[in-house]
Amino acid sequence: MSYEYNGNTLEANDNGYLVNHEDWNEDVAGIIAAAEGITLSEKAWDVINYLRDEYFNNNGNQPNERNMVKHFKEVWTDLDKVDAKSLYEHFPMGPAKQAGKIAGLPETKRKGGY
Predict the structure, then answer these.
(1) Cβ neighbours of residue 30 under 8 Å, at least 6 residues apart?
(2) Residues 6 or more apart whose Cβ sits within 8 Å of residue 28
(3) pLDDT above 90 for 113
(4) What are the extents of the domains in the chain?
(5) What is the pLDDT of residue 111?
(6) Which tens digit of pLDDT belongs to each residue from 81-109?
(7) In angstroms, rounded to a whole number, what is the distance separating the alpha carbons of residues 87 and 72?
(8) How far apart are alpha carbons 102 and 85 in whole angstroms?
(9) Could you tell me the sign of the dihedral formed by the alpha carbons of 3, 30, 92, 113, in that order?
(10) How far separated are the first and last CA of the chain, in Å rounded?
(11) Around Cβ 89, how many Cβ atoms within 10 Å?
């Protein structure tokens, strides 16, 4: 599998994760999101940026959904309730895996997902 960006072919594995995370930028995220059928809202970008920050600044940490909910309860103060459903609204195939793919991160080895 691969993605086309600015006349270049970006290599991805069979599940659509970028092989080289240095190929990622926000435009590439939009291309991957479109392939996933995702519209990137402001909150979707919050999730993507959080996952990238955790991965690159916290020894390759890839938070699970439980930790993501805990984090966003403190960040998304405009919502009455932040739970896993709040995350799935933006990434219906699984916020940890699908958002990680769009964020240009390596495929997580945790069970579950699609």
Answers:
(1) 40
(2) 3, 5, 10, 18, 104
(3) no
(4) 2-102
(5) 59
(6) 899 999 999 999 999 999 999 999 999 87
(7) 9
(8) 19
(9) positive
(10) 16
(11) 12
